[in-house]
Amino acid sequence: MRLARPIVFGNWKMNGLRADGLALAGALAQRAVRLSGTLGIFPPFTILHAVAQRVCETGILVGGQDCHEKSFGAYTGSISAPMLVDAGAKAVILGHSERRHGLGETDALVRAKLLAARAAGLLVVLCVGETEEERLAGVHEERLWAQLDGSLPEGIGPEGLVVAYEPVWAIGTGRTPTSADIVATHAAVRRMLARRVVGGDAIPILYGGSVKPDNAAEIMACAGVDGVLVGGASLDAAAFWSIYQAGGGA
Ligand code: PEP
Question: Is 35 a domain residue?
Fold first, then answer.
């Protein structure tokens, strides 16, 4: 299934008690009567089911921010892909830099999670991105290739897969790459996907990192950008909706 453009996903991270989360979801639901693009929100696990219920009569897609690589078992504190589906999720973010760098997740672990998520029927938003040191050293493309190559299972098809290019140094910092750098890096990721996945041309590529209402139009006008993954600004319904509109969404 082809996702309508723009694709705008909001990663709420560890934010949202029940009342706040439902108010935010409700404010988005009011705006999202008939969506021309793809709008998705990724609340914390604790309110995922309630949020999914709140937006179920809209086209808003709801997803989890991570999943375990096993389906069930003695994995205290973990949430599996079938559990996400059971709670109403249609998608999951995997390999976010806050998990790769903050929690030491390896490409091999992300790959195992990706297999579990696809087996459960979830749309996977696979995050990759270079650190500032790697960008300054000019090795960002090698880094992105290593992450994609290591995180994508052998023989995987393009279905149910979205890649988010998120420079680590741009996440939550208010800094973004230049438009020229976004175009160049998205083109490089596009080539890598074509090389690594049969039919990889069909995989949407999102940009993520300090997307705000005032830079969203410029970022989403960049060649090769199919949409954006938004962190901080997705916690404000008006800001998130204006980002979606800046990409042409109605
Ligand atoms: C993110 O967490 O994926 C992200 C892009 O965050 P922010 O928009 O806050 O930089």
Answer: yes
